[in-house]
Specification:
The chain is of the alpha+beta class. 23% of the residues lie in helices and 35% in strands. Pfam families: Acetyltransf_1 (PF00583).
C-alpha cells in the first residue's frame, strides 16, 4: 500500500535511510510517501518543498535492501507522477548509481543535465525529467 508517511513510520524508515535531511520535517510537511508491505515500510519517496526551478522534483527515493529490484521504486515514482499531470517531473541521481539510472531509463525519464563533482564522493549528479500527461 502506498500512503502518506507518518511519524510512527520513522523507526522503520531510519533502518534503511541513507540520506541527509530530516524525515520528520518532511512528514510534517506532507512530502514523504511510503510503500508498505505486510505492515512494514519497505520504501519511501520525498518531494522537494520548492521543487526544481519551481517544477516538481523528487528529492529522495529509498527502498529497503531486502525489497530492492522488485518494482517498489517504480511504484513510488508512479505515485508521485499521478500528482503532477501536465507538468515536467524532475529527479536526480549520482552518475555511479547504475540501478537508479536503469530504472529512470525504463520509466521514460530523459537526461536534463548534470553537475560535475556535486556529491561528497566526487560523483556527478545527473538530472532527469519526464513530461507527465
Amino acid at each position: 500500500m502506498i500512503r502518506q508517511g507518518g511519524h510512527h513510520d520513522l523507526d522503520q524508515i531510519t533502518a534503511f535511510d541513507g540520506f541527509a535531511g530530516c524525515r520528520s520535517t518532511e512528514i510534517k510537511d506532507g512530502r514523504l510517501t511510503v510503500l508498505e508491505e505486510n505492515g512494514n515500510v519497505v520504501g519511501f519517496i520525498v518531494e522537494s518543498l520548492k521543487g526544481l526551478l519551481g517544477r516538481p522534483y523528487i528529492e529522495y527515493l529509498a527502498i529497503s535492501h531486502h525489497y530492492r529490484r522488485k518494482g517498489h521504486a517504480a511504484k513510488l515514482i508512479k505515485a508521485v507522477e499521478a500528482k503532477h499531470t501536465a507538468n515536467n517531473l524532475f529527479i536526480s541521481t549520482e552518475a555511479t548509481n547504475t540501478a537508479m539510472l536503469s530504472l529512470l531509463k525504463k520509466e521514460g525519464y530523459k537526461m536534463s543535465g548534470q553537475i560535475a563533482n556535486a556529491n561528497l564522493s566526487g560523483a556527478d549528479e545527473l538530472y532527469f525529467f519526464k513530461h507527465i500527461d
